[in-house]
Amino acid sequence: MKTLYKYIIGIGLASTLAGCSLEEHNPGGATADVVFSTENGINALVNSAYVNFASQFYGREDILMLTEGGTDLWINIANSGYGRQMTKYEELVATTGQMRNTWNRLYEIVNYCNAGLERIVDVSFTNEEEKNARVGELSFLRAYAYWHLVEQFGDIDLRTEETKTAVLTANRSPISAFYDLMLSDLDIAIANLPVTPIPATDQGRATKKAAYGLKARLAITRVAYESSASEKDKYYKMASEAAQYVINNQAELQVSLYDTPEEVFRPANNKNNKEAMFFITHSTINSLNPQPNNPNRLHIWFKAKYSAKAGMVVDLPYGADRNSKSGSMCFMPTRHLLELYDEETDRRYSDWFREAYYLNVNSYTWTADDLAAFEKPASMAGKTTLNRGDLALLFTKKKVTGEKRNLPYALVDIDDTYNGDRVTTNARFNVHFPALMKHDDPDLPEANSQAGSKDVIVMRLAEMYLIAAEAETLMSGGNKTLAKDLVNVLRERAAVPGKESDMLITESDLDIDFLLEERGRELCGEHIRWFDLKRTGKLYSYVQAYNKDITTMRPYHVNRPIPQQFLDVITNPQEFGQNDGY
């Protein structure tokens, strides 16, 4: 697979709104006006607009903390550092470095797109279809970057022209203006983007299906900012139509559902995933990645502690194991997330979560220390032996009754991991939990390496079924029969064989809480939960109800703080103002 990132250049485009300059390679000292007047220059500029999504966001823990952390589904058991600020809202302030980095990198993407959209009109291309594709990509990427900015930071500065010098004043624009621009950009993207990338070897470029998908996502988000029923219905309808276009034209758009949930995130399907609508590429050739040492390290953040216990050692199939103590940062499921699944009927749980670990050394005899770690009888020391392939560890969502400590393997059940609705303070058990496998990467160069190379799927076809179903459920006069049928497509796929009828829902099941539960079951860990809860007005209430380990969240945390660095640079910081609560 060809990578986009080897084409990156930089011509001193003024950075973000903070006044620092970009520092990529400037070929031969040429000026932006000269370089960007050519087809190669524009292509390089478009490629540069993709880079931050791979080097700074998707594949990194920062964006994961902003999009999945701080919700009802995940708890970070870290007790220090920026992980606590971003996932627990503890001491989240305007000087938090990750806020500044997120702001700067997203505005850099916007500025690349603004520059490209201004300049490409006057540039001749050998292939007019390629020129149209670049217009579509720039429009898509600007909308995608602005969606992140406006949802994270609120009514900030809307810029539609290239920033060529340091910006000294800034003004807030209404959120509606952002959405007007983004949805207009997506109409342009839909009109110009091809079904397959140009060239076809450049996997990871935005294509027509991605534009339709983002339009559906943004339209249903805009509902939250409308007050009248008619305006809400307008955007529900827009979301449903865009999502249904993808659903009804799968062959034309070259996208389709897998037959089983397991196939969606099967590592062998990652580089040519038929359900993905937009994904961020990471090359298997490390030198081609913007971050060659650790391009995609999502695979390390959802891991339970399994090594150095019951004879287990770190290996490639089970993945990296960084969570050596209760203070280590990780994303462990809340009890609420685990209990969203009925594993007897819904195979998404067993397909996407790991409970069992089988001995990966030749043999192991229980030691006194390991017995104590799992509160097993000391009398088993030196007696009970496990052989390669035997069950060694079981971290289960089930509640196990009876003599669970006397089993030949170590068992940690849901009541060991959690004390009611909170993670247990017992350090013996609070690092052992069912681990999400969606981001597993068995192709690491070595066990415990951070250098993952898997692409990050940030939009897939299943989401279109859920968006259309939500819009039809909540829109005045919407088609709830259609909504039910759309949800049932996913639930039937997710059924344990023979349990299909048990998974089907009726129209009476459909309301926003059920739909959010279903989105949690289907999309957990996929960089969307924070956005979902915010747009439905459920972020604060759901965290209060379902993630009681987050104790310092306040209603104003639906927006992040404006970075202090930005306020220090502009001449009108009082007029621009800090977001409420900060």
Automatic annotation (TrEMBL):
<dbReference type="Pfam" id="PF14322">
    <property type="entry name" value="SusD-like_3"/>
</dbReference>
<keyword id="KW-0472">Membrane</keyword>
<keyword id="KW-0732">Signal</keyword>
<protein>
    <submittedName>
        <fullName>RagB/SusD family nutrient uptake outer membrane protein</fullName>
    </submittedName>
</protein>
<dbReference type="InterPro" id="IPR012944">
    <property type="entry name" value="SusD_RagB_dom"/>
</dbReference>
<dbReference type="InterPro" id="IPR033985">
    <property type="entry name" value="SusD-like_N"/>
</dbReference>
<dbReference type="InterPro" id="IPR011990">
    <property type="entry name" value="TPR-like_helical_dom_sf"/>
</dbReference>
<keyword id="KW-0998">Cell outer membrane</keyword>
<feature type="domain" description="SusD-like N-terminal">
    <location>
        <begin position="83"/>
        <end position="218"/>
    </location>
</feature>
<comment type="similarity">
    <text>Belongs to the SusD family.</text>
</comment>
<feature type="domain" description="RagB/SusD">
    <location>
        <begin position="315"/>
        <end position="566"/>
    </location>
</feature>
<dbReference type="Pfam" id="PF07980">
    <property type="entry name" value="SusD_RagB"/>
</dbReference>
